[in-house]
Each structure stands twice: as C-alpha cells, then as structure tokens.
Amino acid sequence: MTELEQPVPNPQASAPAAASTDIRALNEKIKEKSQFLDLIDMELRKAVVGQSYMIERLLLGLLSGGHVLLEGVPGLAKTLSIKSLASAVDGKFSRIQFTPDLLPADLIGTLIYNQKTADFAVKKGPVFANFVLADEINRSPAKVQSALLESMQERQVTIGEETFQLDRPFLVLATQNPIEQEGTYPLPEAQVDRFMLKCVVGYPSKEEEREIMRHSVNNTFGKVKPVVSLTDILEARKAVREVYMDEKIERYILDIVFATRNPKEAGLAKLANLITYGGSPRASINLALASKAYAFIKRRGYVVPEDVRAICRDVMRHRIGLSYEAEAENITTEEIISQLLDTVEVP
Predict the structure, then answer these.
(1) First CA to last CA distance, the chain
(2) Dihedral angle sign, alpha carbons of residues 288, 290, 292, 298
(3) Strand, coil or helix: what is 92?
C-alpha cells in the first residue's frame, strides 16, 4: 500500500476542532495547490542529476518557510541546486561566500556618509533577497554568524537605528564542508537551532554520475526558467498550514522530542549518558511544520506517522548534544535518533 493509498482518517474520532474539517475536501485542495511542484521538479532536472533527497528537502524548507543547512563534500551540486530552485520560482537570489575575513557589514549592509548631503545613507547588503546562499558558512567567525540571526529569526535587518523588513519569501540556504577543519569555525548553537533542517548530502549513484559526466563534457545541461511565481509559493505556504494533523500525531511528535530530553522516562535509560541536551521547543514546531510540508509534497491533506519519521532525522540531527562518552564510543546522533524512533510508540 502506497502513502497515497492509505485510508483517510476519521475526523470524528479526533479533536473537536477537527470534527468540522472535511478531510476529503482538504485532500482535493492540497492536490490542486501542489500541482506546481511537478513544474519545479521538471525545471530542476534540467540542471541537476539525481540528488532527489536534497531537492525534496529544499522544497520542504521553501514550503514551510524554514532555513536549510546542507552538509556534504564539495562537488555534490549543493550550490547549483539552490541557485536552480531560486531561478525556478523567479526569486531574487544572492550568494555570499563565507571567508575568515568576512565582516557583518558584508552581509547586512552598512551606513555610508554622503559628503554632499552631510548625511548617512543605507547601503543594503546581499541578505536582502528571497534566497540567500550562505556558501561554506562555517568558514567565518561567530561575529559574522550572529549578523544572520536577526534576519533568520525575525525576517528583518537592523542597520544603524533603522530596521528593514526582508522580502517574502525569505530563505537562508547554507552549505558547509564536513571534511576540512582548518580555517573553519563551529556554528553557534543559537544559529544552528534556527535551521529547520540539516541535510547530509551523499554521493550520486554510478549511473547518475555517468549522466553528470556526459552532460558536463558535452555542455548539454539545460537552463532553468521561472515556472512559478513568488505569490504561488506564499499561497502554497498557507495551504501547508491547513494540512490536518491529528492529536495523536501531535503527541507522537512531542514524545520524540521529550525523549531527547529525558531518555529514561521514554524507556531509553542507556541513552541518558550519551545526550547532554535535547531538542528545544523549536524542534517540536519544526517537526510539525516539516511533517505538514512533507504531506503536502506527497499530495495529501493530512499527516501520517510515516511523514514524521521520514523527516525526523533532518529536523533533529543538529538539535541533540552528544556527551564526551558518546563521542568516545563513536556514537552519532543518527544512531540515537534511530533508537528513539524504534522505541517511541507509533500512533
């Protein structure tokens, strides 16, 4: 049985607020609102071969309004995928190459003195865009990273005494190289927590790499054209919020997040010494939003437990602190999340 063939839940058996929700009508609405996803996918395939997981996660961030952190070795089409997505939705794109000598003003802008008018004028930085690619974000020190915090959380930038609202949609899509350690800085926890998803990008398959090689050698990659407007994206975000989530799914999400904070209470006493801190309330919020966006991508008007499990690792892997004991035993957050999902009762 496929996800689309799964039985429609009975709203009468859920919360009173859901009793008035017509799930079938909602399903039809979501199917209609999500049709543009096929157009985006077709355009991205002109420039990107494979990497379906990464593209799907970028779409999740776009539909739910969450920032995405991509981690992988160079050459895996991370930058290309982000730039292609911006082109497909006709959004303003800016690329910031993070380096050790980067200054906060290089991101958000600064005040420039005009001698003729004897006054200061605001020069806006590259963060004033719909899609901001923070390339190799871990190559700049914390002072530069902190310049992004206000824009990521509040969708606004303060320059001098003026505060400027950023355009909607606004999305920070960052990449980082996990291999090189020289000249890199660990991201502050406050900033890492503001990324909805952290995706680990892997190598393409042998067949996919053969296709990449042929297209590159023959210069036959297509040009991505705008197929969706920013207004369509904003409307789709509203539809994502309307996706129905049963109280049982809400409790399931909370059980997963609280298990990272109190493993013993969740029946995972063996994890207690491996975790120094668990997911914050942002983990619960982002897990719920990402689950709704995942259901939207699957053309469903309601969330099922498989949606939560499908995106749980991407939402949680950067929100669990490992102890020295876990690092000494080479235990990863991936293994801890797997144990959590295997233990927490599925509704």
Answers:
(1) 18
(2) negative
(3) coil
Instruction: Determine phi and psi for 169, rounding to 5 degrees.
Output: -75, 155
Q: 51-203 domain in CATH 3.40.50.300?
A: yes
State whether residue 205 is helix, strand or coil: coil
What global pTM score does this model have? 0.85
Give the pLDDT confidence of 206-245 residue by residue, as tens digits: 999 999 999 999 988 888 999 999 999 999 999 999 999 9
- CB-CB contact of 137 with 97 (8 Å): no
Domain ranges of the chain: 9-47+243-347, 51-203
Q: Do domains 9-47+243-347 and 51-203 have the same CATH topology?
A: no
Distance CA 224, CA 87 (A): 6
The yes or no reply on domain 9-47+243-347 and CATH 3.10.490.10 is no
How many angstroms separate the CA atoms of 71 and 62, rounded? 18
